């Protein structure tokens, strides 16, 4: 019965595909051979013809998908056993940002006796300088051993892919760490405050950052974060932590990846994690201090910066100078 149904379907498919007129099939004389041939042909069509590419459209991204790591640090976590891993999302060609971070807060690798480990997460550079950027990255990786690169196209619209690949990487290569923090590259991170906060934080089902509550789904097609109703019918997002910097306990990586199999991959990465978290029934946690995460640049003063965990920084400020100044003043307030 099953065979028959299969044969019927595939014959129909074959007739359609090859435009064979049904009368042709009626003239079959040597039934056994013909049947075998038809099945072989159909199997060939089914399994060797590539599935035509279907774009997910402008509001969803290509995920889940088995992206591969092109540059990797598979042993680093096992060797160094970090308490918290900092995952900085940055464009492949943006070496300047990476160097600033390496010279500033990224250099703090032992804080309150806890190992802090920094990685940069990149996708693939496209365009004319692809090959050149690739070679520079290999060199940079040799020097610093802190690059993770995956083979999706790195662009703003693909940030959700970047974040999901980050979770996959953490799950595969760094699951012994207690916490991971995703952080944007144009920020100031007070690593001491981060570690101090995490020493008292829940160990599981924990995600914190600047939590957005009751954020409206933007329906104006002109908006940067427009989402049409057929993609997401609800008008309010579940609570989510803003993308400038959020922290999660490592047990959540696997759970969020699992949840992502049930939620269409929306292009807005922080909102998407909120949707996955909501699917798990886990609410994000507010940080213990309301000034800890600032999406608007906190004007620099050693006192103010001693109170934050993370803040964005205005682009005109020399961040290396700022860091040196901050570190040289032990009594901040
Ligand atoms: C069917 O055709 C094959 C090869 O063309 C032949 O070897 C086989 O004997 C034929 N079978 C019958 C039942 O005629
Ligand atoms: C996002 O990445 C996927 C996978 O590499 C790629 O096919 C797609 O074109 C990228 N999106 C954009 C807008 O470039």
UniProtKB/TrEMBL annotation:
<keyword id="KW-0443">Lipid metabolism</keyword>
<keyword id="KW-0328">Glycosyltransferase</keyword>
<keyword id="KW-0735">Signal-anchor</keyword>
<comment type="pathway">
    <text>Protein modification; protein glycosylation.</text>
</comment>
<dbReference type="GO" id="GO:0006629">
    <property type="term" value="P:lipid metabolic process"/>
</dbReference>
<keyword id="KW-0325">Glycoprotein</keyword>
<keyword id="KW-1133">Transmembrane helix</keyword>
<dbReference type="Pfam" id="PF01762">
    <property type="entry name" value="Galactosyl_T"/>
</dbReference>
<keyword id="KW-0333">Golgi apparatus</keyword>
<protein>
    <recommendedName>
        <fullName>Hexosyltransferase</fullName>
        <ecNumber>2.4.1.-</ecNumber>
    </recommendedName>
</protein>
<keyword id="KW-0808">Transferase</keyword>
<dbReference type="GO" id="GO:0006493">
    <property type="term" value="P:protein O-linked glycosylation"/>
</dbReference>
<dbReference type="GO" id="GO:0008499">
    <property type="term" value="F:N-acetyl-beta-D-glucosaminide beta-(1,3)-galactosyltransferase activity"/>
</dbReference>
<comment type="similarity">
    <text>Belongs to the glycosyltransferase 31 family.</text>
</comment>
<dbReference type="InterPro" id="IPR002659">
    <property type="entry name" value="Glyco_trans_31"/>
</dbReference>
<keyword id="KW-0812">Transmembrane</keyword>
<feature type="signal peptide">
    <location>
        <begin position="1"/>
        <end position="17"/>
    </location>
</feature>
<keyword id="KW-0732">Signal</keyword>
<keyword id="KW-0472">Membrane</keyword>
<dbReference type="GO" id="GO:0000139">
    <property type="term" value="C:Golgi membrane"/>
</dbReference>
């Amino acid at each position: 019965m099953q065979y028959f149904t299969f044969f019927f379907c595939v014959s129909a498919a074959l007739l359609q595909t090859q435009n064979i007129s049904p009368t042709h099939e009626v003239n079959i004389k040597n039934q056994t051979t013909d049947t075998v041939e038809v099945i072989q042909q159909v199997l060939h069509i089914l399994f060797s013809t590539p599935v035509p590419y279907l774009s997910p459209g402008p509001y969803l991204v290509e995920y889940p998908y088995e992206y591969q790591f092109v540059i990797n640090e598979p042993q680093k976590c096992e060797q160094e056993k970090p308490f918290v891993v900092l995952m900085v999302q940055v464009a492949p060609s943006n070496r300047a940002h990476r160097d600033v971070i390496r010279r500033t807060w990224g250099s703090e690798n032992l804080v309150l006796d806890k190992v802090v480990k920094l990685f940069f997460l990149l996708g693939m550079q496209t365009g004319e300088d692809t090959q050149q950027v690739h070679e520079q990255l290999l060199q940079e990786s040799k020097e610093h051993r802190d690059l993770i690169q995956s083979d999706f196209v790195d662009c703003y619209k693909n940030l959700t892919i970047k974040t999901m690949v980050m979770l996959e990487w953490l799950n595969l290569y760094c699951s012994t760490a207690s916490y991971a923090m995703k952080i944007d590259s144009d920020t100031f991170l007070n690593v001491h405050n981060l570690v101090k906060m995490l020493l008292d934080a829940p160990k599981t089902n924990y995600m914190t950052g600047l939590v957005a509550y009751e954020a409206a789904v933007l329906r104006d097609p002109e908006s940067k974060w427009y989402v049409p109703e057929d993609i997401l019918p609800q008008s309010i997002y579940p609570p989510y932590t803003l993308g400038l910097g959020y922290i999660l306990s490592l047990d959540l990586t696997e759970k969020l990846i699992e949840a992502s199999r049930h939620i269409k991959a929306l292009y807005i990465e922080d909102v998407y994690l909120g949707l996955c978290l909501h699917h798990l029934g886990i609410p994000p946690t507010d940080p213990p201090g309301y000034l800890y995460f600032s999406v608007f640049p906190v004007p620099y003063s050693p006192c103010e910066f001693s109170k934050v965990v993370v803040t964005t920084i205005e682009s005109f400020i020399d961040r290396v100078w700022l860091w040196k100044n901050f570190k040289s003043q032990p009594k901040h307030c």
